């Protein structure tokens, strides 16, 4: 059922103007990571997929430098890679990680939400919704190997996964920090966090825009495991092996049972959610806050 809903929404997404013309193109070539049966890496400019067919697993590496901000093009490429893996019966699990040193993802691309026309905000928000729905409802086991900082939309992306392994580096904070930018995490960002860490912890984390360092993230439950930086990928692989040992149909149905009510809320309020976002982001006060925040990021350098 969830798969059918998912396929319908993705098909709709792929027919949209922002997705047209983008197809998975051959990427960097080389032997599959650990696979050894000749299957090659593939992907697209911003997403590298390293298949390990023997294990039934693919490592999906985000590579949208400098900070893996979730631009329209990047989201589209992520969705296409996910669809390709879901449609290939070889794969049962994905490890989602970053190819940008020290950054998992800086979250939604602020330049997509600043100084653009309302029509652009509509297209962008559809892509953000689609990405959340597709990853949240994926029938594959999805494990986040979080090897860098992960604010806002970056945190949300990891929360769609079934399990999160975070590298133990005090710089690698994670959380929904939207309020610090003068913006508000939508209800489905909030719901995803509530489902992960509970209502009270979410209330505090979202109002204060908390970015948790690893020990704190583990204590509150934003991540499931914190390991030394050089063990993030190997830990994700052993966790994946445990999850893949469970009969797939039983695991998938249980995942659907747990997640469908949350996803259904967005599916039934999708258009209203787009309108709310566009109204909100078009406000002068919000645009000023976002411009000021971007300016602060740029000045930090100089
Ligand atoms: C309702 C909506 C809900 C919203 C949800 C969200 O996700 S909102 C998002 C909430 N996200 C955040 O609050 C995270 C904001 N970002 C950060 O805190 C830091 O960039 C960092 C800690 C991720 C990396 O630190 P670092 O010292 O390694 O790197 P650096 O800081 O030097 O940046 C390098 C370049 O990247 C640029 N750029 C950065 N982020 C974004 C972005 N999201 N987008 C676009 N661009 C971004 C930055 O301007 C700079 O550009 P320049 O000058 O080269 O043209």
UniProtKB/TrEMBL annotation:
One of its GO terms (molecular function) is delta(3)-delta(2)-enoyl-CoA isomerase activity. It comes from the Eukaryota. It is an enzyme of class 5 (isomerase). GO terms for cellular component: mitochondrial matrix. SUPFAM superfamilies: ClpP/crotonase. Its EC number is 5.3.3.8. It holds the Pfam family ECH_1. One of its GO terms (biological process) is fatty acid beta-oxidation. Gene3D superfamilies: 2-enoyl-CoA Hydratase, Chain A, domain 1, 6.10.250.170. Pathway: Lipid metabolism; fatty acid beta-oxidation. It catalyses: (3Z)-decenoyl-CoA = (2E)-decenoyl-CoA; a (3E)-enoyl-CoA = a 4-saturated (2E)-enoyl-CoA; (3Z)-octenoyl-CoA = (2E)-octenoyl-CoA; (2E)-tetradecenoyl-CoA = (3Z)-tetradecenoyl-CoA. InterPro entries: ClpP/crotonase-like_dom_sf (IPR029045), Enoyl-CoA_hyd/isom_CS (IPR018376), Enoyl-CoA_hydra/iso (IPR001753). Belongs to the enoyl-CoA hydratase/isomerase family. Key enzyme of fatty acid beta-oxidation. Able to isomerize both 3-cis (3Z) and 3-trans (3E) double bonds into the 2-trans (2E) form in a range of enoyl-CoA species, with a preference for (3Z)-enoyl-CoAs over (3E)-enoyl-CoAs. The catalytic efficiency of this enzyme is not affected by the fatty acyl chain length. Homotrimer. This is Enoyl-CoA delta isomerase 1, mitochondrial. The gene is ECI1.
